[in-house]
Amino acid sequence: MTDILERSLKKAFMDQKIEGSLYDPQVIINDTKTKQYMLNVLQNELDTCEEFFFSVAFLTQAGLAALKTQLADLHIQGIKGKILTSIYLAFNQPAVFEDLLKIPNIEVRISKKEGFHSKGYLFKQKGYRSFIIGSSNLTMSALKINYEWNVRLTSYEHGQMFQDLQLHMEQEWQEAQLLTQEWISNYQKTYQPMTYTKKIKNIQEQSLTDEGIPYILPNKMQKSALNNLKELRETGAEKGLVISATGTGKTYLSAFDVLQAQPKRVLFVVHREQILNKAKSDYQKILGGKNEDYGILSGTKKEIQANYLFATIQTISKEPIMQQFAKDHFDYILIDEVHKAGAQSYHRILDYFHPKFLLGMTATPERTDGFNIFELFDYNIAYEIRLQEALEEEMLSPFHYFGVTDYEKNGELISEATDLKYLVEEERVTYLLEKLDYYGCSGNIPKGLVFCSRKQEAEALSLLFIKKGHPSSYLSGDHSLEEREKQIERLEKGEIEYIFTVDIFNEGIDIPKINQVVMLRNTESSIIFIQQLGRGLRKDSSKEYVTVIDFIGNYKNNYMIPMALSGDTSRDKNNLRKDTFDTNFISGVSSVNFEKIAKQQIFSSINRVAMDSMSELKKSFELLSNRLGRVPYLKDFQEQQTLEPVLIANKKASYYDFLVSIKQNEGVISETENRFLTIASRELLPGMRKQELILLQKMMSEPKKSLSLEEILRLFEQQTIPTDNETLNSVLNTLNLTFYTGAIASTYKGQSFIERIGNQVSLSPLFKEALNNDYFINLMEDILLTGQLKSVNYSSKEPLTRYQKYKRKDVLRLLNWDQQMVDQNVGGYTASKGEFVIFVTLKKGDNFSGAQMAYEDELLDYSTMKWFTKAPRTMKSPEVQKLMHPEEWTIRVFAKKSDNEGTEFYYLGEVIPVKDSIIELEKPIQDGGKKKVVEMFLKFLTPIDVSLYQYLEAGQE
């Protein structure tokens, strides 16, 4: 390692061209565009450390919360750390000291030093030390949002700089005071918080009248939506749909639009009586006027003379009630939670009334019952803001999501099949309370909403929580409106800590003071998940953030958790895996964290589930079809990010076949034409290389014209795609199908897209003939355009893009090999044309039967892989000789975690064998004998991305 560390120091301080490594000094600056944060670096250091020491002046509950899952996993491993902090400027609140005391593997001391303002993080790593020094305290703003400068350095333990830091911090530690409960109690008595104006952004902007009376102004989202609604009406539209995340102010928005539209009579329709009074109150704040202008129409009130009438759907949809109004009585009708409008009760009022303008509002317009909300509103989406955007705009309360491991009974995790008696036994309750206490909440006084899967479970758990000293209540659909409101009031007043619930509170309920959302149920759908998460996201001055604690058992639907949190509905397994091990996708000062075992439960669920089942693909098709008002094509799926186009295109022979199977094809093509679509879907649609797509698109635009090789090269240059003659030949071999061999060649036989005669390239006669069918042209162009959209994920300057996934044949094609090799012949590696490619399956499982010998390939660290040749091989074997002369070869490594991930491998980058590590040895084989193999260390020219490395090295699911 000595040479690597020396090289890193030279790279940093003498010559940037020197090969890098994990140990390179690193400048850390929060970057929201690339999603690179100080928080990630800290989490990565904690994940691999053997010991740590933080010296930070300021901490917040939120900043500490973002590290709690790492700290919990370290505790299981027996790894401890120290935190030295202070009471400088009274920044640190008593609540954060209480949180620190709950973390069992941290010892905390309080510095007595005047003006203590340090920000340093030291880690003992295996074989070296790392430390981060800079401007970031342990607050979420400093770790994710603020413009901060930090530097990460590495050292040996005996290095002078590390020794100086270690000595100084130890001295400060010895002089500091131990954090105890008694110390916190005393601090609380004398604590005077910093006096500064705290602005809760975007709860709702306010201003003052000339008389000094506050009135409400539209926030940023509302201003944009109001402008869109105004423009929509100016075009003559009579309907509009607003899609807006829970908590972003939809009711206020509708009131502002009523103010700008100036209707004489307004009907506001809700699905629950509980919401009416709040909606009425919000309207009065915006519109003003007399009390008698506002009325309620419900089971208990019939104030139908009001100009602004707030009605439940259950009441207004009754025939005798509707008949009391003329069809055009209301100029403006608003439907709240309009995704419910598929019900007959909604149909009745929408068929009866004829307003000048109809506004629908929802956070989740997607329906799986076939009803098309978009069609209901003439496909007029006036405004759309989803969870991630709302977090970026600071319209919602930040949240810290913790995916934690559920209770284990007799070695088995809670699952869908777990008997009720185990769900409600005292041991599980003790376990739940320990986790709730550890992950905590803003201010440490819980106001929590607990979602359960069964009524009996919710009721029993609420009683057991009370027994354990945590006042709680239980609500289900069986409880009256009055009882629900009573319990909500008790929660907000602090009389109870938790409401356990089933079937209600998924939507349409406003409890702004909720600071903890607890999920004790299997995730039924990503829509319901977001609805339940959203119950705590409304901003309130009583909380800094919301804690979401999701108890993850051995559930088949665990894969929906990363899907819901990231908003990625593509059903691409690789994306879901990435969103589980790399949670940088979450915006603002929120964070997503999974405990190690919970993370493995999600990976296991992803591996098991059939993402491309016909029912799921059909569901995704229908959702997009409803939004567009027409048959969606592959390009639509890519642009809307609603489904991975490759999944649906390759479910059957082609997307055309999929459309035929669900009777949605808008034309007919021949079997020959369909085979062209099949080949293009498999080989071109993924967009791994843009050249084939550009060339075929150009030639389709002028089917009778041939192109010279020089013209093709100029075409690529115009598209800023650097292309050499070898790449050009590879592109032509792909399109004339001569690259393919074996079973694939048999399948593709006779279906070449182009033919080459000398220097000229033209479309093949068969493909030209296919272009007589306009529907075929549309389907083929759809593939090419979608492939170009997907190509942005791949480098146009390098043949392969690090961390993308490739099949063996893709790798050989993109490296310009003349012909494909059958996968079995490639096996673990192959070499040609100066390229040596290695394919490794890291987690082969205990009963691996894919080879005679148990190969023990493994990643040793971010820069090193231990690797074995095939057997039998010796030092004199041709491939070993090649690897002993790496200057003549470009050696690339591709890896997948396990065979559960299919036939694709992550491209990890180029490597160089460590010559003095190459040894010949004998290993046992299955029949009891031994065979010779060669073992060596492979050094990556650039270290593997930390999050991907940790994913690949995580235990077998």
How much of the polypeptide forms β-strand, as a percent range?
15-25%
Biggest pleated sheet: 9 strands, mixed
CATH topology of the largest domain: Rossmann fold
* Mean pLDDT, all residues: 89
Low-confidence stretches: 207-214
Q: What distance separates the N and C termini?
A: 32 Å
Which architecture name of the largest domain does CATH use? Answer: 3-Layer(aba) Sandwich
Pfam family, one: Helicase_C
Domain Helicase ATP-binding: 231-383
InterPro entries: DUF3427 (IPR021835), DUF8090 (IPR058403), Helicase/UvrB_N (IPR006935), Helicase_ATP-bd (IPR014001), Helicase_C-like (IPR001650), Helicase_Restrict-Modif_Enz (IPR050742), P-loop_NTPase (IPR027417), PLD-like_dom (IPR025202)
Domain Helicase C-terminal: 416-598
